[in-house]
Amino acid sequence: MTVIKSVAGLGMAGALGGVLAAAVVVPAVGGAGIATRTAASTLIDLPPAPREEPLSQLTTLLDKNGKRFAQFYEANRTTVPLSRVAPVMRRAIVAIEDARFYEHAGLDFKGTLRAIIANTQAGGIKQGGSSLTQQLVKNILVENAESEKEREAARAPNIARKITELRLALAMEEKYRKDDILERYLNIAYFGAGAYGVEAAARRFFSTTADKLTLAQAATLAGAVRLPYSTDPSLGRAQRARLRERRDTVLDRMAGLGMISQATATATKRAPLAIRLRPEPGGCAESAYPYFCLYVQRELLSNPVFGGTRAERQRRMARGGLVLKTTLDPVAQRAAERAIAARVSAADTEVAAEAMVEPGSGRIRALAASKKFGRNAGDRDNGPHTTFNLAADVRHGGGMGFQAGSTFKVFTLATALKQGWRFDQGFKTPGMFVPSEGYKNCAGKPVNAPTTKIYNASGEGKGGPHSLSTGTWKSVNIFYMMLERRVGLCNVVETARSLGVARADGAPLREVPTFTLGVNEMDPLTVAGAFAAFAARGRYCRPVAIVEIVDREGLRTRVPPSCEQALERDVADAVNHILSGVFSQGTMKGQSIGRPAAGKTGTNNGYTSAWFAGYTPDLAAAVSLGDIRGSYRYPLRGVEIGGQSYGQVQGASLPGPIWVASMEAALRDTRPTSFVHPDMSRFGGGHTPGLAEALAAEKRAEQREASHRRHFRKLRDNYRQYYRWLSRRHRPDH
C-alpha cells in the first residue's frame, strides 16, 4: 500500500495529507505546494525497514541434571508470540497508545495534527503523536545501538530523528502485518521495574504470565509503558499511585472506544492495583552457585569457541536468549562448599577455595570458596564477601592465585619417570642445597640461583638418601631440587605445560630452579585439571564448563571436550602408584576417603600458602589456602582459622582434610574404581645407596617412639586408676 493511498483511505486528500505530513516533519517550509512536494518525496521513496537484531533476553544456566541454577542478562526479557498474550492486553495497549492502529498505515494523522500544534508553538518536538509503529521503530533503533552516542541519537527530540522514524515506520507497515508489528512492540517495550517485554512485565508486576493477564492487570501494564520510570511499582508508594492513575486512564480510554462497558471500567477502577512483585531475576550474584555462574559468563567472553572476536562474543552474550547446559554437579558442589565451611569461616582473612574436575573429559564439577560472593558492606576490602572467583584464574574472574608449593613436584616426578627412572631409584641429599649450577630455562639460558639456600620444610622430610617414592611421600624439597636438575628444568616445565599449567595471573611461567617447589601462583581449577590428567592415564582435557548451547531458535550445539594424550599411559600409571603412597606412607598418612586415591600436599617455605591436590579415577580436586590480604605479608603461622588455632598450616593440616571431606561426600554414590597397576618391569626396582639402612633405622625409631607412647599411656592409665581409688578411700560416709 502506498502512502498516498493510505492517506486517501483515511478520507483525506493527497495534497492535504502532504501538507499535514510536511507540517510535522518539515514545519520550517512555508508554502503548501513546496511542502507537499517535499512530503511526497520523503514519504513515498521509503528506505528498507529497520534492521532487527534479536532482542536481548535472559541466558539460562542448567546443571548437569538439567535443573536451572542461574541466569544472566542485559535485559530481563522473555519473548513470546502474540498468541501467548491475553487478548485484553492487546486491546489495552492499542487503546492507550494508538487507537487507530489497525486503520492507518503507520502515520496517525489525527494524532499528528495534535502534535503539529504543540510542536509549532514550541519550535521543536514537544508532543508525541507517534503511532505504535513509530514507537516500535524508535525502540528498535535504541536496541540496535552499540554505543551510548547511538542510543542518544535514537532518542534525540529533533525533526531529523522524527523524519527518519516516520519513514522507517511506513516501511515496516509495508513489510509486516499489523499483528506482527504489535507482537514486536509488546516484546520490545520497557514496562518499568527492570522488565522488558510483556511476558517479563507480567511476571515482575503480577507473578503471572502474559496469556493470563486480567483486564485490571492489562490496563496497568499498558499504562506503564508511557512513563515506565515514574510508575515503577518497585520504587514506592508515589510511583504506585501514579501507576494506578495511568491504569484508570487506560480503562476510561477502553470504555470510550467501546472495548469495554463504562460499568466494567468503573468497577475495575475501584479495585486496588494488587501488585504482586516477583523479585527481579538475579544475575550470578543471586545464584545458588555464583562462582560457577561467573566462570561460565567469563568463559563465554574469553573462549574463541563462542565467537571469533571478543566484540562478537560480547554481542552474543548481551543478546542472550541462550540455554547453557553446564557441567555443574550439585552433589559435588555442595560437598565442596560444606567441607570448606566446616573448617574456614567466611569472616577469616585466610581463604580456602576448591575446584573439582572429571578426569577424561575436563568437565568442571564444582567451584567453591570460603567467602560468599559479592561486595562487603561499605565496599570494604576485607569481610565475609569477595568479588573474586577464588577457585579460578584472572581470565575467569579470579585473583592472582597462591604459590602452588610442593604440588608441582609431580611434574618433576612425571618427567623422571618418562626418562626411565624407577620407583626405588634415588640418591643421597644434604641438609641444605644451593642451586648454583645446572639449571637452564627453555630458552637455553642459565637461571642458577647461587645466593638461594634450600631447606626441607618442617614436617616434610629430612636430608639423607631418598628414592623417587620416599622423596615424594615425604615431599623432600632438596631431593626434588636435585632431581629437577638431573632431568632438566625445561623438561619439567614442558611436562607441566602439556598438562595445562599456566599462571593464574596470565603471566608466563617463572622458569627458575624453584619451579619444582611451586614458586608460580596458581588457581585450584588449573591444578585440578592437571592432576585429572594423571587419573585419566595421561589424557589431559582442558577444563570445560559448558557442554551444550541451545539458541533462541532451539538449535542445539554440542561443545565437545578438548583433550590430548599429554603423557604415556604407562607413565601416568606409575605416577598414580607413587602418589597413592602419599596416603599410606607419606604426608597424608592417616587420612583416607575409603577408596583408591592419589595426591600431593603442597606447603610453601615460609608457610605463605598451603595446598592439597588429589584424585581418584573418577574425580580430581585441588584445594588452596592463603591470606587474601597477601600471602607474603600474612603467612599461615600463628593463625586462627575457622575458630581453630594453628602454629603453622601445612598441606596436610587443613587443605588435606577439606579435600578428604569433600571427596568422600562427592563420591558417595559412585562405585570405587581402582587405578591401573603400573608396569613393574619398566618402573619397579631401582637402587638408592644407603636407603635400606636409613629406612631400617627410621623403622626402629618409629618402634621406639611407639613403645614410648604405649609406656606413657600405661603410666597415665595407672595414675587415673590410683586417683579414682584414692578418691573413694577419702569419700565421707553418708
UniProtKB/TrEMBL annotation:
Q: Which GO terms describe its biological process?
A: cell wall organization; peptidoglycan biosynthetic process; proteolysis; regulation of cell shape
Q: Which InterPro entries match?
A: Beta-lactam/transpept-like, Glyco_trans_51, Glycosyltr_51/Transpeptidase, Lysozyme-like_dom_sf, PBP_transglycosylase, PCN-bd_Tpept
What Gene Ontology cellular component terms go with this record?
Answer: outer membrane-bounded periplasmic space
Report the catalytic activity. Answer: [GlcNAc-(1->4)-Mur2Ac(oyl-L-Ala-gamma-D-Glu-L-Lys-D-Ala-D-Ala)](n)-di-trans,octa-cis-undecaprenyl diphosphate + beta-D-GlcNAc-(1->4)-Mur2Ac(oyl-L-Ala-gamma-D-Glu-L-Lys-D-Ala-D-Ala)-di-trans,octa-cis-undecaprenyl diphosphate = [GlcNAc-(1->4)-Mur2Ac(oyl-L-Ala-gamma-D-Glu-L-Lys-D-Ala-D-Ala)](n+1)-di-trans,octa-cis-undecaprenyl diphosphate + di-trans,octa-cis-undecaprenyl diphosphate + H(+); Preferential cleavage: (Ac)2-L-Lys-D-Ala-|-D-Ala. Also transpeptidation of peptidyl-alanyl moieties that are N-acyl substituents of D-alanine
One term of GO molecular function = serine-type D-Ala-D-Ala carboxypeptidase activity
Signal sequence segment: none
Q: What is this protein called?
A: Membrane peptidoglycan carboxypeptidase
